[in-house]
Every structure is written in structure tokens, then in C-alpha cells.
Specification:
This protein is α+β, with helices and mostly antiparallel strands and 96 residues long. 23% of the residues lie in helices and 28% in strands.
């Protein structure tokens, strides 16, 4: 886990997601400019992440994969439920 100082200056490295979105009609560059608010409904913790890739594989049954840092900050493990919503594209990444 990075130090808080390092994390604060490298947010794009630690707060990202992969999601199975439809590239049409907006295209990949539109998605990469977006910000998503992810909330753990069990504890109310929230983070803002940026989409970086299409995924996860349909065989997993998931629609969103989060970075390890986002999962840790949310107190989530892979395959647990989360709430996801769009926020303004310029919203800072990280814990909210």
C-alpha cells in the first residue's frame, strides 16, 4: 500500500476500473474522460475512479472490476456488490 503522500500525487495510478460499457456512440476516448463514484452500500465508503479498460470478461459474471486500492478503500472484495454512478468528468479521483 502506498504512503498517503505518494498516493495523493499519483491518484490516476491507484483509482481506476474496467467496465463492460458500449463504446458506441461515444467511443473509448469519451469513456476515459469520465469519472465514476463507487459506493460500498454495506459501510457507506465511497471512491471516485476512472475507466481505463473494457472488462471484466463476461465469464466472471461481473460488470465492473476495481483497482486494488479502490477495493481496499471501500472495504470490498471481488464479487461483492457496489453502487456505481457518474459524477462530473473533472471530479478528483480517490476517497470521498
Amino acid at each position: 500500500s502506498p504512503s498517503s503522500g505518494y498516493l495523493a500525487t499519483h491518484l490516476e495510478t491507484y483509482y481506476y476500473c474496467a467496465m463492460r460499457w458500449d463504446y458506441a456512440p461515444n467511443g473509448p476516448s469519451w469513456w476515459r474522460a469520465q469519472r465514476l463514484l463507487v459506493i460500498n452500500p454495506a459501510n457507506g465508503r465511497a471512491v471516485v475512479v476512472r475507466p481505463v479498460d473494457w472488462g471484466p470478461n463476461t465469464n466472471t459474471g461481473r460488470i465492473l472490476d476495481l483497482s486494488p486500492q479502490a477495493l481496499d478503500d471501500l472495504g470490498l472484495e471481488t464479487d461483492q456488490d457496489a453502487l456505481v454512478a457518474f459524477v462530473s468528468p473533472g471530479t478528483p479521483l480517490g476517497i470521498k
